[in-house]
Design brief:
- InterPro entries: Homeodomain-like_sf, HTH_TetR, Tet_transcr_reg_TetR-rel_C_sf, YxaF_TetR_C.
- Keywords: DNA-binding, Transcription, Transcription regulation.
- This is TetR/AcrR family transcriptional regulator.
- It holds the Pfam family TetR_N.
- The chain has 194 residues and is mainly α.
- It is 75% helix and 0% strand.
- 37% of the residues are buried.
C-alpha cells in the first residue's frame, strides 16, 4: 500500500517547519515558504488566512506531533530507548541538513514576540515542549522514578536536547549530541535503579 501524496496545505506546513528550522521565524516569509513547498502563493493565503502566525503555529504543531509519535513508540521499550530515539531523531535532522536545520519549535521559542502579546506559535511551542516532557516523565514514572524527579529529568532531557541541537549547528559537529547522550543516559539509568 502506498502512502498518499501530501496535499498542498500539508506541503506548505512541512515547508514552513523546514524553513523555520533553518532560518528562524522572523526570517521566514510566506512567499518563500510557498516557493519552498512548490505551492501557489495564493493557496498559502487561502489555507492560512490569518497569515504567518497561523502557518508557524501549524508548523510547530506538525513538528511536535511528529516527534511525539516517534517518542511515544520508542518509549514502549523504556525511557533509555526513548531517549536514544529522541536524540537520533535530532541527529538525523542536523546531519541530513549538513548542520543547517535544527528544531522549529526551539526557533519559534527564541524569537522575540511583539510587546504585550503571546503569539499562537509561541503558545504552541510551549504545548509541544510540555507534551514531550509529559511523555518522558510518564515513561520514567512507569519505570519506578518518583513523580517529581521524573518531571525534572524529563525537563532536563528536552532542554538539553534542544540546546545540544543548537550547539551541533554552531559547531557543525555531532559531538555535543554524543556528550549529551552519554550523560542523559547515565542520569536516566541511575534514576531507574534508585
Amino acid at each position: 500500500m502506498t502512502k498518499p501524496s501530501p496535499t498542498a496545505r500539508e506541503r506548505i506546513v512541512a515547508g514552513a517547519a523546514d524553513m523555520i528550522s533553518r532560518r528562524g521565524l522572523n526570517a521566514t516569509s510566506i512567499r518563500e515558504t510557498a516557493k519552498h513547498a512548490r505551492a501557489p502563493l495564493g493557496s498559502t493565503y487561502h489555507y492560512f488566512p490569518e497569515g504567518k502566525q497561523q502557518l508557524a503555529t501549524e508548523a510547530v504543531r506538525l513538528t511536535g506531533a511528529w516527534a511525539a509519535r516517534s517518542l511515544r513508540k520508542e518509549l514502549e521499550a523504556g525511557p533509555v530507548a526513548g531517549l536514544r530515539a529522541f536524540l537520533d531523531l535530532w541527529r538525523g535532522i542536523v546531519v541530513n541538513s549538513d548542520f543547517r536545520a535544527g528544531c522549529p519549535v526551539l526557533a519559534v521559542s527564541i524569537e522575540e514576540p511583539p510587546a504585550d502579546e503571546t503569539p499562537t506559535a509561541l503558545a504552541a511551542a510551549a504545548d509541544v515542549f510540555e507534551e514531550w516532557e509529559g511523555l518522558l516523565a510518564g515513561s520514567l514514572r512507569e519505570h519506578g522514578v518518583e513523580p517529581e524527579q521524573a518531571a525534572q529529568l524529563a525537563t532536563l532531557v528536552v532542554a538539553a536536547v534542544e540546546g545540544t541541537v543548537a550547539m551541533c549547528r554552531a559547531k557543525r559537529s555531532t559531538q555535543p549530541l554524543d556528550h549529551t547522550a552519554a550523560q542523559l543516559q547515565a542520569l536516566i539509568v541511575g534514576a531507574i535503579r534508585d
